[in-house]
Amino acid sequence: MSVNMVAVASMATPSITISFTNSKSLTLSSSSSQLPSCWPSSNSTLRRHPSSCALTLRCGAAVFASSSSPFTSPNSNSSSVIVAALGIDAQSERDYEPLQVMISGAPASGKGTQCELIKHKYGLVHVAAGDLLRAEIATGSDNGKLAKQYMEKGQLVPDHIVVMMVKDRLLKPDAKDNGWLLDGYPRSLSQATALKGFGFQPDIFILLEVSEDILVERVVGRRLDPVTGKIYHLKYSPPETEEIAARLTQRFDDTEEKVKLRLNTHHQNVEAVLSMYKDITVKINGNVSKEEVFAQIDSALTSLLEQRKAASGSVAA
Ligand code: AP5
Questions:
Q1: Which residue's CA is the nearest one to ligand 1's atom 17?
Q2: Cα separation of 105 and 297, whole Å?
Q3: Residues noted as catalytic
Q4: How far is ligand 1, taken at its centre, from the CA of residue 118, in Å?
Q5: What is the pLDDT of residues 222-278, one digit of tens each?
Q6: Which atom of ligand 1 is nearest to the CA of 222?
Q7: Cα dihedral 48/49/54/55 (nearest 10)
Q8: How far apart are CA 257 and CA 254, in angstroms?
Q9: Gap between the Cα atoms of 252 and 151, Å rounded
Q10: Chain mean position to CA 271
Q11: How do beta strands 45-48 and 26-30 pair?
């Protein structure tokens, strides 16, 4: 897909199109034969509107704004991808600190599904430990091979692999600038302690509560679209077209047998993790439809954001 950046300061300045080649690469093109000389330069800044995914690029006196608001890319963190690819600083227009959110719950409780909705509304950077591990497996590295052995048994991947992986991702500028949404991490006391030691403290710990029979049904019916990354369920969230249905894949650990192992691991660790965040935990009824689950989360995040804005206003006043 592409995002048009239209000059709003000077009609003489050419418009710019950012095209997403895939989740990591972009191409920049302009309506003139060359990109404006100011792009990208060290004094260019990319602004992200807090309430949407719209972008503004400032090149000296020229100001470019994305014509579509909000926009989506085939994969997550579209604006973050742009910031990273251009190697320029993201500056936020908000005058309050971005949210830092943790979401937890048993396997298939709906963490990934809710993260998509949260990310879309609040613009947080989604960091999912399971996705980081699957990406490592895809590289064929030794760490990836070892991680897969644990994931196939439904066990936690050792800390020496996962702890630094998550820390490094949270330290990236997009997570610092936009706030983060940490999914499926920490899953043990040692991970929670390490995270605290690195100085990462969430504002809220969301716990999705779902009964066990529903979890098994959700795991067995889950399918993924390798092209868009979208999560489907054969019964609750079926693919929109036959073309999508034909390309859906199933995760290697999404069998009834393996989910039982994953559930055991979850039960062994959940209380220890909860004890670290009990003051900021919000329990959500995850047994209902994804829209109803999101309504509960949205209400908690909105009130947190309002408190933060009010606090920031009173400091400024
Ligand atoms: P990970 O990938 O994190 O798996 P998980 O925790 O088992 O969670 P899932 O991704 O299975 O489910 P989800 O809660 O995101 O549910 P989803 O939204 O997809 O971890 C995999 C493995 O990696 C672990 O077993 C472990 O080995 C390793 N690992 C991960 N983190 C680690 C860590 N910190 N340390 C060490 N090892 C780690 O939804 C599921 C299905 O239900 C979908 O089909 C969806 O469409 C459907 N659905 C969702 N919500 C609803 C709803 N409300 N109503 C109806 N259907 C719904």
A1: 110
A2: 13
A3: 111, 187, 222, 251, 262
A4: 16
A5: 999 999 999 999 999 999 999 999 999 999 999 999 999 999 999 999 999 999 999
A6: 44
A7: -30
A8: 8
A9: 9
A10: 25
A11: unpaired
